[in-house]
Amino acid sequence: MYFNEKRQELAPFVNLRSDVGFKAVFADRNNKDILIGVLNQILPPEARIEDIKEYSDREQRRDVPYGKKTVLDLVCVDRDDRTFVVEMQASEEDFFFERCVYYASGLYHLELSDGVRYKGLRPVYVVSFLNYRLRHDDESLWDTDHFISHWRFTEKRTGMVADQTISVIFVEMTLFTKTLEECVTEFDRLFYIFKNSDGFQRIPEWIEEAGGISRRLAEACEVAAFDKEKKLKYEIDKMNEWDILAQREFAERKGFEKGYADGEAKGIADGTAKGMAKGMAEGMAKGMAKGMAEGMAKGMAEGMAKGKAEGMAKGKAEGKAEGKAEGKAEGKAEGIIEGRLDVAKALLASGMPIEQIKLYTKLSKEQIEAIQ
Predict the structure, then answer these.
(1) Mean residue pLDDT across the chain
(2) C-alpha R_g of the chain
């Protein structure tokens, strides 16, 4: 049931920007003329291909027993013994340029067998169709008319190009944005088909009328035109591609869910910790302020009450002592004066003059006269 459902979902035309669709068209030896025609639109003039004499094994042999084995999309050799690695890169990955150089260098030196000198080395070209944009120093230099980049050895100061050894060519498909009306050359038509083949329901009339390699490319993309064996292989490859995409989407979703859950848990933990720290700080500040205010008020009240009580007790004691002392002093003084007044009375009675009485009693004239 699964297989039948997948069969019904196949589009009428292959998607050339997918690995499966790309290989279905360009790895088919019956489409050799299409491969040559497309490559010759991309390659520099000195590298143009007249004929492909063989399609090489896509699996590179190891340099050493434990070396890395590489499986390439498409490897072919032209009649001048130059090797061409052609691939479709559907998604972006790290160190892609380094990977291309690795592919090319492996093929470049492995063609040198024992006893053959370096003059036997032949050029290797890696042509990568990219379904994404590369990062450039100046993005303004890259657009719908400039989306193919060529990389090779050059002398930095003079710009002199070294003899051909390894070249890497990138075709950034997403930069090609021309509409059907803007496609006036064979080059434009080819890349319009590259970008839009999966949306075709039939071969457009303008392609039928244009003919040439663009018409051959469109015809090669039609799934109904595949022979029975090729169509079965394409369907199986397509299902495997869907399975891989589903697994990737599942892994991405699980990763997102885990990241979300971890982030939420961390956010809660961080928020709780920060909230507790903030709450403690604010609570301590408020508690200290309130405690100080209440403490000061209570302390002042208690201090005033205690001070008042102690002051009153002290004042009473001191007042009592002071009053007693003063009373004694006043009583003593009054007693002395009264004694002197009694003596003065007696002296007055004896007829002693007031002036003499003043000398004996230390009283004033007024005090003596007051008792006469």
Answers:
(1) 83
(2) 57
Helix (H) or strand (E) segment spanning residue 225: none
φ/ψ of residue 364, rounded to 5: -85, 165
**3-class DSSP assignment, residue 244:** helix
Distance between CA atoms of 272 and 233, rounded to whole angstroms? 57
**What is the predicted pLDDT for the residue at 296?**
66
Banded pLDDT at 331 (limits 50, 70, 90): low
What amino acid is encoded at 87 in this protein? E
d(CA 229, CA 234): 9
Residue 212: left if φ>0, alpha if ψ -120 to 50, beta else—which one? Answer: left
Count the Cβ atoms, other than its own, within 10 Å of residue 10.
15
| Measured distance CA(118)–CA(98) in Å, rounded | 24
DSSP states along 53-105: EEEPPSEEPPSSTTS--EE-SEEEEETT--EEEEEEE-S--TTHHHHHHHHHH
pLDDT tens, 79-89? 999 999 999 99
- The better pLDDT of the pair 185, 319 is held by 185
Of 111-115, 142-146, 254-258, minimum mean pLDDT range: 111-115
- The answer to whether residue 25 scores a pLDDT higher than 90 is yes
DSSP string computed for 153-211: -B-TTT-PBPPSSEEEEEEEGGG----GGG--SHHHHHHHHHHHGGG-SS--HHHHHH-
Contact criterion met (CB below 8 Å) for 111 and 137: no
Which amino acid is present at 332?
Answer: K
Q: Please write the tens of the pLDDT for every residue from 155-203.
A: 999 999 998 899 999 999 999 999 989 999 999 999 999 999 999 999 9
Q: Is the pLDDT of residue 39 over 50?
A: yes
> What is the phi/psi pair of residue 85, to 5°?
-100, 120
CA 44 to chain CA centroid, nearest Å: 41
Residue type, 330: E
User: Which one-letter DSSP state was computed for residue 135?
Assistant: P
Tokens linked to 146: 């400039």
Write the DSSP symbol of residue 146. B
Structure tokens at 250: 């599942």
